[in-house]
Design goal:
The chain is α+β, with helices and mostly antiparallel strands and about 160 residues long. It folds into two domains: about 30 residues; about 90 residues, Nucleic acid-binding proteins (OB fold (Dihydrolipoamide Acetyltransferase, E2P)). It is about 30% helix and about 30% strand. The chain has a five-stranded mixed barrel with strand order 2-4-5-7-6. About 10% of the residues are buried.
Length: about 160
């Protein structure tokens, strides 16, 4: 009778081993695919162009400044053609989707997508960066309040 009990316990543990191994294997697979699809090269225009065909067809991000003379917008087809640069040569790009309101020449952008075999960046995402400079608003004095120039001076009402 003791021999029967000693064999029953390992079988009960073996019953849980396979489902547990499958669940853990599935989690490892999901984490690995999320990490690999979420990682992407982040290059400047000069870096992307210097790598040539090595980056063709690979997902990547490229940062640059919009060349205003190259902007072509087709509102019917929602196709935006333009080029970006970073001091040197330009990288032609195409984006299919709504044109951002602040998309103008000289704007800093980040493109996410792939470079095709013709050397055109096919952007699946077009992200505008925030302006790097902010100008302080000129304070407008209102009656009964002190302004920065009148600090320490009596307030006239």
């Amino acid at each position: 009778m003791e021999a029967t009990l000693s064999h029953a316990r390992p079988r009960r543990h073996q019953r849980w081993f396979l489902p547990l191994a499958l669940v853990l294997g599935g989690l490892v697979y999901l984490i690995a695919t999320a990490i690999s699809s979420g990682t992407m090269y982040y290059l400047t225009v000069d870096e992307a162009l210097s790598r040539g065909s090595a980056v063709w067809g690979r997902p990547l991000r490229v940062s640059g400044v919009v060349d205003g003379a190259t902007i072509q917008w087709d509102p019917r087809q929602l196709v935006l053609r333009f080029a970006i640069r970073e001091g040197g040569p330009t990288l032609p790009a195409i984006y299919r989707g709504p044109r951002p309101d602040n998309f103008t020449g000289g704007a800093q952008v980040i493109l996410e997508g792939r470079i095709n075999t013709q050397g055109v960046f096919e952007a699946s995402k077009l992200m505008m960066t925030c302006p790097s400079r902010y100008e302080a608003a000129t304070p407008v004095p209102t009656p009964g309040t002190a302004t920065a120039s009148a600090v320490g001076a009596p307030v006239q009402q």
